[in-house]
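Researcher: Next sequence.
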Amino acid sequence: MTDECDGDLGDLGDLGDMGDMGDLSGRPDRPGAASRDTGLPSDASGTDRAGINLPGDDPERVPPRAPAGAARIFGERLALAEQFTAILTDSGVSHGLIGPREVPRLWERHVLNCAVIQSAIPLDARVIDVGSGAGLPGLALAIARPDLDVHLIEPMLRRTNWLSLAVGELELTNVTVHRGRAEQFWGVLSAPIVTARAVARLSELATWCLPLLLPGGSLLAIKGSSVTEEVKADRAELRRLGAVDEVIESFGNGIVDQETTVLRVVQGDRPVARGAAEHKSKRKRRG
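Model: Next structure:
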């Protein structure tokens, strides 16, 4: 069931026309509010639920055709990935989750860009996707890897409604949608893998995400060209938060034109000091 209040706060940043990549630190209207959606919202009915239009409502928006590389990632679930891309093309655009000029490159820059990192994730793993926004990378990974147990964390009601409808439309049984800030799930959810695709600095991502990791787990942060400089600048903070290693990895060679850059932050065997993380998180938000 989904909370009735809508904590519609601003995002961490902007990636040009890439649209809404998710807000890792947005605050629901009621302190401590966090909902768990296991399917469609209880107050929703038909395609009008949560005001979300399913594919086909706007004939001017046509989903791009899947590139040849998509079959290598999605295999027999390619049709499901195409359905997801169609949903992004329609309601993803109309709800501001994807920029309209991104539609022609949805596969290359978004769906495949995220799905190619699936090879970094162990078999049958639980994955927590923080700041899921348009379901990137969370839904793309859930489609490519039905063995995964994927948990999407997103603070904004309109986005969790959209995510729940997309999960229901795609009939994904390996996805759970949670409404709330990442901090609200410290000690509630944990996993060996946490993913994030956003423009927050590494130190902020680590503050929110590392407490969700099991000892020895990895944060997989999809990053841009500045990742090397970020690691150098924030390494001391990562150590304070319990990280023991950082590795820059590339995925998608021969599948996407520009390989996806992922920073793997490896958590130590000792849990992160939650008190320190909570203090830093509050300080960041006040700033």
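Model: DSSP finds eight helices and eight strands in the chain. The longest strand covers residues 213-223.
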